[in-house]
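Hallway conversation turned thread

IA: we were arguing at lunch whether anyone had actually written out DUF4442 domain-containing protein end to end. Turns out nobody had. So, for the record, here is the sequence (160 residues) and right after it the structure tokens. Reply here if something looks off.
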Amino acid sequence: MSNRRLARKARLLRWAMNLYPPYLGAGIRVLKMAPDLRAIRIRMGLGWYNRNYVGTQFGGSLYSMTDPFFMLMIMENLGRDYIVWDKAAHIDFVAPGKGPVYADFHIDETLLSDIRSHTAQGDKYLPELKVEVRDGAGSLVATVHKTLYVRLKPRARQVA
């Protein structure tokens, strides 16, 4: 995909994610999305709609704010020849989220090359990625570990 087309897609995706009802309702906003979809910054405020019984960020909302982004970033950067799914996730709650929280997602060419090399013969690959959720002061609130499932589509395997 051309850089220009990917940048256009990133703008549209950011707009769509900010209007996505579950994110809108939970107060989750995509603040920044790099034109190459290799960096994304997410914010979730603290309001009555995502506050738990003790007045801090609801754990499900903390996970939800991190859910689709690695999958989307990998999928868009690898292109249409790959199947990309979320396979597993684990969240470690470190401290209560008492206000707005942020998550910064990053992928690089090294990761993409690693995925391509592991899947070149049609094998599945399960990369494990991590994102930290931090409060406005930069203190760690939670760490989310994601495992993706990546594989070349059957038609792409036949060509390779």
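OS: looked through it. The helical segments are 3-19, 21-26, 59-64, 69-78, 109-119, 154-159.
IA: good, adding that to the notes. DSSP finds six helices and six strands in the chain.
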